[in-house]
Amino acid sequence: MKHLLTILFISISTTFFAQQQYNTTKGFIAEGYDVVAYFNNNPEKGNKKFQTTFDGVKFMFSTKENLETFKKTPKKYMPQYGGYCAYAIGKNGEKVSINPKTFEIRDGKLYLFYNSWGTNTLKLWTKEGAEELKKAADKNWEKLKKN
User: 0.90 cut: is pTM over it?
Assistant: First the structure.
């Protein structure tokens, strides 16, 4: 019994920690949008029939093919900075929610951005220097992951 409780505690702790490192608004990464579809420049909402869990968080896909593609190489499709707004991570080191339709594929990686109330952080990312903001975001994310 003690062994079972230890396993249960580790499982719950791991899930809680993973969810802290990922933006799981609406219960899924990228608010339930298909992370594989972004790489075809076509952000699509996922279908509950096609979902999986990776690294303790849930993903939805628009097609069975995209689900299978993700399962083969999940790390390739993971949004950077846990799916939080790349601009906010780079600029202020803050975890900010995203608009799943506002994204960029840069160097084969998925970056998501906040876009609401007249503020499109993808435009700011580009205007203020994406490469420098990306370097800052990489450093800031390492600190944020430890918190």
Answer: no
